[in-house]
Amino acid sequence: MNLAGVYVPLITRFDEAGHVDKKANQEFIEVMLANGVTGVVVGGTTGEGYALTHDERHHVLATAIKQVNGRVPVMAGVGGVSTNEALDHAAIARRLDADGLMIAAPAYVLPTPSELATHVEAILKATGLEAVLYDYPARTGVSFTTEVLDILAPHDQVIGIKEASGDLSRIDLIQERNYNSFEVVCGNDSDSRVFFDKGVTSWIGGIANALPKAHEGIMNPATRDEAFAAVIPLLSYIEEGQYNAKVKALAGILGLPSDFIRGPLKPASAEQVAKLRELVEIAGDWAPVLAG
């Protein structure tokens, strides 16, 4: 699976009653593909994968795979707080012929490096699918340390790590270990320029749900400075808190309403929406209307 370019971890659109809206999700995928994303991730953090039932995970992934129809790779998010739960998530991806997995560390339980590696190896063995690790210790409580990576990176199935720790020194640290066929993937939108200036060529960016043009512009050295300067106020504002609610609100401002968000989270406030509108004006042509 080629990780180059912008992969978007798709938001999950719900109807007003809070049910998964198949038609709206199909529409959203088409808009993302029309805007040049090179892959999609289903059931990740931005997709509220933590709030989906087993059947809903199956539904949203099946919808995405059918809608994409081979045009770009489709990865499935794997989370859970136990290995058995993660294996259930991964089994859906295997049955539906997803192209790969994005595997987060199990939240809350704080496994040791050896235990975390064994957890991931169980998923790899059960599915045979390629996988990107998802390092986000602020959410999971545990990191894919170099001790863990030394065990997992040599696996042919493990092709990269979405680096969302906020510790930019890890980019050099991982690259210097020269793991074969193992890529660092940008996982911090507001720090994206640092990643790409260091030679990173892949981005799994949640705010690409609303700003795919800007994400492509930041990846391109010819437009990087202009695009980044235009949208960094938006990226920073969204990443400072209530991330999922703000991403959905921004998508709505730009023509793709996605107001419902699953509890315990709440939709963006009127004040937050007003601030997002203000920052969209600042971004100008780098934050165009997506639909509507």
Write the layout of secondary structure elements.
Elements: E1 5-9, H1 22-34, E2 39-42, H2 54-68, E3 74-78, H3 83-95, E4 100-104, H4 113-127, E5 130-135, H5 137-140, H6 146-152, E6 158-163, H7 169-175, E7 183-186, H8 192-197, E8 202-204, H9 212-219, H10 224-239, H11 243-253, H12 270-283
Parallel strand pairs: 1-2, 1-8, 2-3, 3-4, 4-5, 5-6, 6-7
Helix pairs in contact: 1-2, 2-3, 3-4, 4-6, 9-10, 10-12, 11-12
What does this structure look like?
Helix content is 44%, strand content 13%. The chain has a single domain, classed as TIM Barrel (Alpha-Beta Barrel). With 292 residues, it is α/β, with parallel strands linked by helices. The mean pLDDT is 97. The chain has an eight-stranded parallel beta sheet with strand order 7-6-5-4-3-2-1-8.
First-last Cα distance: 33 Å
Global geometry = globular
Oligomer: single chain
Q: Roughly what is the average pLDDT, rounded to an integer?
A: 97
How much helix is in the residues?
40-55%
Index terms:
single chain; 292 residues; 12 helices; TIM Barrel; globular; alpha/beta; 44% helix; 8-stranded parallel beta sheet
Can I get a quick summary?
With 292 residues, this protein is of the alpha/beta class. The protein has 12 helices and 8 strands. It has one domain: Alpha-Beta Barrel (TIM Barrel).
